[in-house]
Write a structure and sequence with these properties.
Layout: H1 12-68, E1 78-79, E2 90-95, E3 101-104, E4 120-123, E5 128-134, E6 139-145, H2 149-162, H3 164-183, H4 185-196, H5 215-263, H6 268-296, E7 302-308, H7 310-319, E8 326-329, E9 337-340, H8 342-359, E10 366-370, E11 375-380, H9 387-392, H10 410-420, E12 425-428, E13 438-443, H11 448-451
Parallel strand pairs: 1-3, 8-10
Antiparallel strand pairs: 2-3, 2-6, 4-5, 5-6, 7-9, 10-11, 11-13, 12-13
């Protein structure tokens, strides 16, 4: 049975990456808007200065041109010849007091100039104008900016500032994501350490590399695990001590009951002695199961060095006198190395096989299988069990649909051992490849020796 990890509702890394990138983007946009406003003001000053300078340069040239004309010549429009083909962004027009055009730049459009522009700067229908009047009002020089020129300059400048956002957005998200990932690496390690804690591993988590904001959380987690460890240790100690202390008096009482049964003749007294013997035997088995449960819930279910579990399985089968009652399938090499403690595996195997022999159909053999990949399964023949019965079989002191004697702790002990190594116990009915029966299997940790 696999543990399904529920994904978190929101990733802190994703939130920080998008928040930081969004903040940078917002600041960039604000800076672009501010720069656009400042640039618009500066461009207005530069272009107005250019208009004024054109008029002031053209004015003496126009005056000299008018004086050089023949006195009897009719006033007429003259167009300044262009040195080379080019587009004028500032054009000018020279008129007399009557409004007649005297001189204009080669690219000027007379329709762009109003008939009576005011002195100084003014705004026409589509352009910016600057006008000066000279020679007692006989010359009027007006310079006009090409329509939309300064607006286009501002737009181009803002585009230059804004275009990098398209490149900065993905790069910003990727860079911020990587930076946040590196920054949150101690927190990720802290999370993995907490996930590694379980029933058999409640050691404090390290707080050395954690930032100051998370360190109090780690200290609180360590304090909580310390309290849980004390409670579990007290419970296990009580269970183990109680079971151990019961073994001696129970064994003595059982011996006395058996001796009394042998001395008594057939009759009511001997029958009551048999009932006492049966109750004491049940109590002895219960104390043994409680000792096994205390060991299974302890921290000693893993071995520091890989151990071959096949000999332990053979010893369990021999102790249960299962010859002819069990069909055994072992790995191809006849060996299986695991980091599961050999004693813990013996307890696990004994409980599974003992349950199968006790509660299964005695007319058919029990199947015991250990594969090279660490799957250990025990199949007991019998009727198909409902999912409701299977769901409660791993609970303590809960027994399935059986009339056989038992304490209801066997599968709980197996489950506790598997939790100690980070695994689970799985039950299925009918058994794999069969029409009936119950299959119980666990995934044992495989060492490199077993894999090789």
């Amino acid at each position: 049975m696999m543990r399904i990890a529920v994904p978190p509702k929101g990733s802190l890394q994703r939130r920080l990456a998008f928040a930081l990138t969004g903040g940078v983007m917002a600041l960039w946009l604000l800076a672009t808007v501010g720069a656009g406003l400042l640039l618009r003001r500066e461009i207005d000053e530069v272009f107005d200065s250019a208009l004024q300078e054109v008029v002031q340069r053209v004015l003496p040239l126009a005056y000299a041109e008018v004086l050089n004309r023949e006195a009897d010549a009719e006033p007429g429009l003259q167009q300044v010849a262009s040195v080379g083909a080019h587009r004028e962004y500032i054009t000018y027009l020279v008129r007399d007091a009557a409004g007649r055009s005297l001189l204009q730049s080669h690219d000027a459009d007379p329709a762009q100039f109003p008939p009576n522009p005011p002195h100084g700067f003014s705004d026409g229908p589509s352009s910016r104008l600057y006008t000066e009047v000279a020679v007692s009002g006989t010359l009027v020089v007006t310079a006009a900016e090409r329509p939309g020129h300064r607006q286009k300059a501002v737009r181009d400048a803002i585009k230059v500032l804004a275009w990098p956002l398209l490149l900065l957005l993905p790069l910003g998200i990727a860079g911020t994501w990587a930076l946040v990932a590196v920054t949150l690496r101690p927190i990720a390690a802290f999370r993995r350490e907490i996930e590694a804690r379980g029933d058999g591993h409640l050691a404090p988590v390290s707080v050395a590399a954690l930032p100051s904001e998370i360190a109090p959380v780690a200290e609180a987690v360590n304090a909580l695990m310390a309290r849980v460890r004390r409670v579990l240790d007290a419970e296990r100690s009580f269970t183990a001590n109680s079971a151990h202390e019961l073994r001696t008096p129970v064994a003595a009482a059982l011996a006395q009951a058996q001796r009394l049964k042998a001395e008594l003749p057939e009759g009511p007294a001997r029958a009551r002695t048999v009932e006492i013997e049966t109750a004491l035997q049940r109590l002895a088995r219960l104390s043994e199961k409680l000792l096994q449960l205390a060991k299974a819930e302890g921290a000693g279910v893993r071995s520091e060095v890989p151990q071959d579990l096949v000999p332990a399985l053979r010893i369990v089968l021999h102790d249960l006198e299962a010859q002819g009652l069990v069909e055994v399938s072992l790995p191809r090499r006849g060996r299986f190395f695991s980091t599961l403690d050999m004693d813990a595996f013996a307890i696990l195997a004994r409980n599974l096989i003992e349950n199968a022999l006790k509660h299964g159909d005695s007319s058919r053999p029990v199947g015991v299988r250990l594969t090279d990949d660490g799957r250990f399964s025990v199949t007991s023949p019998g009727p198909v069990l409902s999912p409701e019965i299977i769901a409660g079989m791993t609970q303590r002191f809960v027994r399935g649909a059986t009339t056989a004697d038992g304490a209801g702790l066997g599968l709980s002990i197996v489950q506790a051992i598997m939790r100690g190594v980070g695994g689970e116990i799985a039950l299925s009915s009918p058994a794999s490849g069969q029409a009936d029966g119950l299959e119980v299997w666990v995934q044992l940790p495989v060492s490199k020796l077993a894999a090789g």
